[in-house]
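Sharing a chain and its predicted structure for anyone who wants a worked example. Both blocks are below, sequence first, C-alpha cells second.
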Amino acid sequence: MAFGEDMIDGYPDGEEPIVFHHKNGEFRELERKQWRDLATGQNQPKTGLFRVLVSTKMNRMIFIVMVMCFGLVFVLNLLMNKPNEATVNGVYCNLSALSINETLYVTTECRISSKSKAYRRNSKPREVSIRAVAVNSQNNEFYIGDDLVEVNEPNTAIPSNLEYKNTGLEGMEIESVRVTVESGGQSEDITCKIDNKNKVKKIK
C-alpha cells in the first residue's frame, strides 16, 4: 500500500484505523493448562527434600522402596547376633579386646535380664566358664587363659578380665580373639577384632 496525501497514518481518507483491543492476560486462555498454572503461580515447583520425594508418583514409589530397604536392614541388625555377642543359659555375653604396650586385655561381660524368660523360669545364680584364645593372621591359635564368672544379680554386668604379656615368637601378628562361653550345658563361641593401641606382634 502506497502512502499518499489522501491517507492518514497509512489509512485512506474516510476509513477509520483498525484499533486492537487487548485485555491483560487474555492470551493465557490459549496456553496449555500446565504452562498457564506455572506462569500464574498455581503450579509452583515443590521445594524441600521430602516434598521432592513425594512430588510425583514415581518419586513416591522410589521413596517407599527406600524406606522399606532401610527398615529391613534395621530389623536384620536387631535380629542377627553380632560375632562378639552370644547368650548361653539365659546369660548374655559380650566380648571386647584391647592391646596396649604389648599387653593383650580381654574382657567378657556376662549379664542376665530380670525380664528374660530364662530368669523367670530359674532365678538361681549361673556360672559361666570362659576360655580365651588369640588368633593370628595365619589363623593359628594361642592360649590366653580360662576364667569362671558367677552371675547372681540380674541386670548387672559381671566382667571377666584376662591379661596376657606378649613374649617370644616374633612375627606372629594377632588379629582377633575367640572366647568359648559355657553355662548350663550350653556353649557358644564369640569373636572380636582387637582394638590396637599398639599392635600385638608377639605372643607365646
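Comments welcome. The first strand starts at residue 7 and ends at 8.
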